[in-house]
Structure formats: C-alpha cells, structure tokens
Amino acid sequence: MIALEPVADPRAPLARRNPVAKLAAALLFSFALVVTVDPVAPAIAIAMELALLPLFGVRYGMLLRRTWPLLIGAVGVMVAMVLFAAERDGPVLLSAGPLVVTSGVLMTTLGLVLRMFAVALPGVIVFATTDATDLADALIQNVRAPARFAIGALAAFRLVPLLGQEWQMISMARRARGVEAGRNPVAKLKLFVSTAFALLVGAIRRGSRLAVAMDARGFDAGTPRTVARRQHFTAADAALIAGALLLAAIALGVSIRLGTFQLIW
Q: Would 144 be classed as within a structural domain?
C-alpha cells in the first residue's frame, strides 16, 4: 500500500511552516541544482538536506522507507550510462568486449545519480511534513490558485493510495482464476502490462465519477468559496524560502570554487 500521509513531528520548527513556503523552498532549491551536472553541488545539497532533516521532524529511517524507489532508479541510471553513454572520456577503467567503462562515464553517472537524489529529497520532505488538505488550503489562500484546481488535485492525491490496493486486488483475482506467469519472464512482463492497463482503466473510470460528483456538489460554481482553516504566511515562512536560496547558492558556489561546475546545456 502506498502511504502518503505526513509522518513528521508536527512540533518540529520547519514542519510548522506554511505549506506553500515549504513547497516554494523545495522547488527553488531543486531548480538551482538542475542547471549543473557535476557531482559536487548535489553532494553538498544532499548533505545539507540530511543535516536539516531533524528540523523537519522526519526520522532518517522513515526517509529511507519513502525513498527506496530512488535506489532502483539510481541503479537504472548507472546501467544505462555504463552501457549506452555516447562520450567515454578519460582513462579506461574496465574493458570487456563491447563494455567500456571510463572515468568520465563514472563521473557523469555519479553526477546524475546525486542530482536525482538532491532534487527528489526536498519534495519527499515536503510531503512527509505537510497535510494535503493544508496544502490545498494554502494554495487557494496564499497563491490564489483556482479552487477547482486545488481541490481537484487534493482529491486525486487522496486517491493515490487506492492504486496499491487495486493492484493487489487485480493480482489476487487473476491468481484465483489461474492466471499466473510462473517463472517465465516474458509471461511476467505480459501479465504486468495487462495488470497496469486494467489499473489505468479503473483509475480513469473512478476519476470520471469523482469529477461528476464534485461538479454536482458545486465545486465548479463561480461563487467565491469560504475557508475553514486559515493558512497564514509569516516572516518565518519567507525566511525559509530565502534560506533555501542561500543554501543552493552555497552549494553552487563551492562547486564553482572547486572548478567542477558544469552547466547542463
């Protein structure tokens, strides 16, 4: 089952900040790291993120449980770069037939993997410390986002955990009917694709029913909506955004000072 509820200590100093401020800080911090492919800046950024994690009230074990898919993605990036990298600069470290691994390939791979973690971790921390309803309220009140968009996104976010449950139900139903792949990898791939297609069809049907139900309840009305919970944007929230920009500038500045900074374009 996919768990998306906040898991942080709500009393932590940064966990109490405005949801929009946390989201803006994460986006600005991540955007600054996207412009470079060197491994130094994202490595410093990851160190900063892990050092600040207790201030968000998130335990390191919980962060690991929420980011394990990134480890699979990192392995995929490494394999793809080692096998299909177009440029193989630097000394050859390993040569086995068509497989040629150079120091340049390893440095590029390391930079991509570290950047993936550095960009993804702020988003994971934001959603681990933020209630989805509070985020929707803050988007409407502080950013003046359309209520239809914010509430629709909230409804979609709330339905994400159902995908894991439906996947299990579809798999169990097919297993009860004798539809199994056994040890055949091709059959496993076909079964995975068909299960994913069935999940997609079910998600589209549920989304259509939800949209009709929300329109029937007046969520698309043009009249102004009231809010039950006020989301205040304070000076501390602005300081969080400024701090994120400062930390990103420090990471990029150290990379430039060491001569490893390299723009992505």
A: yes
Strand partners, 263: 36
For residues 187 and 100, the answer to whether their CB atoms sit within 8 Å is no
pTM above 0.85, yes or no: no
> H-helix or E-strand containing 122?
helix 103-129
What is the percentage of the chain residues whose pLDDT exceeds 70?
Answer: 91
What tokens does 27 get? 């986006």
Residues 13, 203: Cα–Cα separation, whole Å? 37
Is 219 within the bounds of a domain?
yes
Cα–Cα dist 181/184, whole Å: 6
Number of domains in the chain: 1
Name the one residue in this structure whose structure tokens are 């297993």: 175
In a domain, 14, yes or no: no
Q: What is the pLDDT of residues 97-153, one digit of tens each?
A: 667 777 777 888 888 888 889 999 998 898 889 888 888 889 888 888 888 788 888
Task: With respect to residue 3, please indicate whether it lies within any of the assigned structural domains.
Answer: no
Domain ranges, residue 35? 19-258
> What is the C-alpha to C-alpha distance for residues 19 and 138, in angstroms, rounded to an integer?
6
